[in-house]
Write a structure and sequence with these properties.
Helix content: 25-40%
Low-confidence stretches: 1-23
Mean pLDDT: 91
CATH topology: Metallo-beta-lactamase, Chain A
CATH superfamily: Ribonuclease Z/Hydroxyacylglutathione hydrolase-like
Shape: globular
Order of helices and strands: HEEEEHEHHEHEEEEEHEH
Strand content: 25-35%
CATH architecture: 4-Layer Sandwich
Structural class: alpha/beta
Distance between the termini: 69 Å
Number of strands: 12
């Protein structure tokens, strides 16, 4: 009887675990060392689409790049990070003005997290009455938090007029956001604010400045390939031919 009961309970646990996995709204994946990608989801053109953000765990606290696309995951992300690493998020930098990057800025400011965008992003958010960061970055800057240093780099317009990338030169990690398309992407995605003419030049500037990246984190879909810069150029070339 005890064996039957145990088997039944194990079965229920497996079913519950499977249900949680299939309904998951927040996923955290390890990149390397202290670097992690977090993924949330929204519906785009009638399909479920992932949005990738990144965070790095430092001696002083956690630095977050972009905020969740799914607004229900602002707090679960903070909670998940604290449970995993026993550290709080202390800095958040959004890489452009779209909601899949900036939606949580106001929420995170309430918790004393220092939030940043470029001045250009801030002006766009202000004009559209959308969440703004507490601080603005006037030019390409180097941040040092704990044992890690990284650069904010504006290479030019592309997906949006204000998109920046984050470059960790020592670790060779490039966080590209929506400016860099995943190798899974079959088109350029949302072009509402895009500058398709400038975009290839911007990507080439990134290739020249952020050389030989070991990891390239794209804004959406699979981020595990280092060929995403080349793939973005290919998609742009295909778009020009249409």
């Amino acid at each position: 009887m005890r064996n039957i009961t145990l088997f039944f309970l194990l079965g229920i646990c497996c079913i519950t675990s499977f249900a949680q996995e299939t309904n998951q709204r927040l996923k955290i994946s390890h990149v390397c060392g202290d670097f992690y990608v977090y993924i949330t989801y929204q519906s785009y053109n009638g399909q479920k689409m992932s949005a990738n953000g990144m965070y790095v765990v430092t001696n002083e606290g956690v630095v977050l790049f972009d905020t969740p696309w799914d607004t229900t995951q602002f707090q679960p992300l903070l909670d998940s990070i604290y449970v995993r690493h026993h550290k709080k998020v202390i800095v958040c930098i959004a890489t452009h003005s779209h909601e899949d990057r900036t939606a949580g800025l106001s929420y995170y400011k309430k918790f004393g997290i220092k939030t940043y965008t470029t001045k250009q992003t801030d002006e766009i958010c202000k004009d559209r009455n959308e969440p703004q960061a507490q601080y603005t970055i006037d030019k390409d800057s180097v941040f040092t938090v704990g044992q890690y240093s990284f650069q904010t780099y504006y290479a030019g317009a592309g997906h949006t007029p204000d998109n920046i990338v984050i470059w960790f030169p020592k670790e060779k990690i490039l966080y590209g956001g929506c400016l860099i398309k995943s190798i899974e992407a079959t088109d350029l995605g949302n072009l509402t604010d895009a500058n398709v003419e400038a975009w290839p030049i911007t990507i080439k500037h990134i290739q020249q400045t952020c050389k030989n990246p070991r990891y390239i984190i794209t804004g959406h879909q699979d981020w595990t390939s280092t060929k995403s810069l080349e793939h973005t150029l290919k998609l742009l070339e295909e778009y020009k031919k249409k």
